[in-house]
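Let us work through a complete example step by step.
Step 1: write down the sequence.
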Amino acid sequence: MSLLEQPLRTAEFLAVDVETNGCAGDECELTEVGAVLVGGGELHDRFESLVAVHRPLSRGIERLTGITQSTVSVAEPPEVVLPRLAERLRGRVLVAHSAAFDRRVLRAAFARAGLAWPDPPALCTVALARRFAPLVRQRRLPALADALGIEVSGHHRALPDAEACAQIFCALFARLCAHATTVSDAVALFPRRRRARRPRRPPGRLDAAGTVAPPGFDFGALPRGPGVYVFRDGAGRPLYVGKSVSVRSRARSHFAPGAEPAGWTPHAATVDHRPTGSELGALVLENRLIKELRPPGNRNGKRLDGFVYLRCRLDIAFPILEVAREPAAGNAVSVGPLRGRASAAELVEQLNSLFALRRCGRRLPRREHPSAYGQMGRCLSPCLGDLDPNLYRRRVDAALALFTDTGDGRDRVLAHIRAEMRGAASEQRYERAAALRRRAARLEVLLARLDGALRAVHTRPRLVLAGDPRAQMPDAFWLVSGRLADWGTLPPLDELERRTALALGTRPAGGHPSAIPADQLDEVRIVGNWLAGHEALELELDEPPARARLAALVAAARQTVAAA
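Step 2: predict the structure and record it as tokens.
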């Protein structure tokens, strides 16, 4: 009896998960494989192995999976690992989460190793969940396992993911058996989806690299290093702005025979470029050129009218916290931009109640009796005219310390609430302690939403040098008050010293961090995300650096370029 004719209830299944180096196409290599034998609705034997690769792993994949270059360098080669997996697949049905991806990676790995792919029948747990658990909207592996009451011990490693996949399959197996009798019936329930055929590109001239190049194009004149390119029409109007670590390859790819044609490509007549010294420089320059040129081929930037600022003007008696669409000018503290007026307003309300600040607007009314908030002990009631301004200002400063101090203000605020909670509990005011505990939990959620803005504002000023092996010199980036104050190709030492002093001169006066303009928020995120995933030479600029420190940084940068 063949495997496809075997009764589904008595068949054996092998839940498989793979990890890769994160590359696309032919450069995608298998780095780890995990497998769990499933039979009779239970998990049995397990198999796990790292796999040696030829191409280096990116730092992003190393952080995501925990698999490092050093571990795969000493792992067994695919020629040793894959036959063991093929032996376990023989006579069994392959089960995987997003099975099309795992099958594609394994088939390519077998072919690269010169081995025959066993091509077992396959079932996908995503397809099973789509049909037999339709109310579960999130079908990523951890979310689906959680919705089915399955505990997941790990994530983004082959064996823990294979075990989670096997448990999901067991949870849905009874429903599958109710609709299919044999393995063949089960496979037929989930036909493979075919991708829609791409429209054929109009015939054009093939250059030496096989590119369908428009007349007059010379991709060979573009650099192989990082930079930005701009396609223009016959009148010189910009059509599309792109960036790449290899400008020539990326610009040519828009006109490759297998590329999906865009609406602007038939109108492209010329292409120009601007080289940079790093990938980060290309990202920043592309973002700025898209805003400046507004080419139709690029998606428009996000609307900025959804952002608000949390601000406090310090030039009025008994300052208040408020939410506004623009940062405050003059002697004030402004934080943002923040996404979501409702969340910002709730944070202001929480801080007002926690530090007993007033809510009655900038013009302070005079009252004979305290307001409702004052009667509840949630306002110091400066409206009565007998409050010491210094006491109130200390409360304001304590609330603003979350945004103005260089340390972790979130921890300070939460520690303040917990101290009050312990004090209320020691005085047997348990309702007050319970209310403070709920407030601490809610504030933790709100402050987590603001974490990106807070980290950007509190970032220490620094000079960052980012390079690329194909560029002659790295790029220099001056980060001040969370923003990109200046950037460009690393200049000579005298110019570097002058521009560093000018960048530090952009720091806000008065010691308070200034708010980030909404139109610069995407640039802040670009720089922050790139630095989080890459190594770069850095020099802190808490004070204007001595010339010798700048010279040492330049020497280290040149040594890095020479080594590359």
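Step 3: interpret the result. The chain has a mean pLDDT of 81.
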